[in-house]
Amino acid sequence: MIQVGDTLPATTLMEYSEVEGEGCSIGPNAVDVAKATAGKTIALFALPGAFTPTCSAKHVPGYVESYEAFKAAGVDEIWCISVNDAFVMGAWARDQKTGTKVRMLADGDATFAKATGLTLDLTGKGLGLRSNRYSMLVKDGKVVTLNNEGPGKFEVSDAATLLAQAKA
Asked: Of these four, 60, 100, 146, 157, which has the most CB atoms within 10 Å of its CB?
């Protein structure tokens, strides 16, 4: 499992873009994790799935609401990662009204989740291999803090916890 001090895995995530800009076309665009985190401070949180109850009612809204506070604490970007495809993450972004506040990144085949060792097997519930619920502060591609949730929990990966760590 990834630990504080480790570098994020050199993987590619996908992001759905509604409009063209900065070299991105409309539709799914590849996001090279190493390049996208270089020289930046990222508040990253991951969760089991788009449109699921806790994720939609608590996890994403907390980060959207805390956007300005994260920026004031020196965070360049907020990332939400889930084992879903880019189209689902794009639809969820519209539903959650994340706008430019939270980048909704798809880990379609769980490559990032597997590489971090932060997976959750929900095969018995019809969801397959997913990402565990966690948050981390990442500086220049390295993990500074890691808040990994226990099974079925939402206690330490919330926006308030990570924001306090970003301010420290």
From this structure: 60
